[in-house]
Predict the structure.
Amino acid sequence: MNTAGTSVMKSLIVGMQLQPAAAAAVNSLPAETDAALDVLLVGPHASARSSLALHFALHHAAESGLPALFLCVQDAVEQAVPLLPYMCDTNDPDLGLLHLKYVRGHLDLQRLGCCLHMLQAAYSAVVVEDMSGVVKTDDRNTLIRTLALLVDGMQAYRAAHQSRCPLLEPPVTAATASVCLGRRPRHGRQAAAAARPTGRPQTARQQGR
């Protein structure tokens, strides 16, 4: 698998087969000296968010040789399996670096966020495959609290391991993202930053405060 490129955009689309013009544009992107570590992936339904999340995890695993933690709902991911990156087949050894952890709801993610600093394993990336598929509630505070706990947990994990392990969280739609961005939680850190929704997934840096 091709693992060239270090920017957030490159690590998201490294598994795609791009047209020459698009590939040239991506290659011309400047290197990020302060790469975003907490990333919110925004896009409408059926815009390949889950596949991009998988590509992101596999890219970081292949580049570092460390496993990537992929958090998902078992039934959902089995009903709509993300596509493998271009030039990656089922025999690719990098797939062995993908550590799946099934979660049932937002409480599982919140508990994980509170315990991330105690993880002994060194991960190359932590990816939540479908945030709003896990947080099955219309309570915006629950969604924001879950995001904030994950971001705070990742900051503690990085400090404990002295690493730059990124966190990627794809909400289902831009409307879900607007819930995250519309109000700051009363505790924890701001869990997301604004991104304009279009027909393609976008990334937004999640700024701490």
User: Anything to note?
Assistant: The longest strand covers residues 38-42.
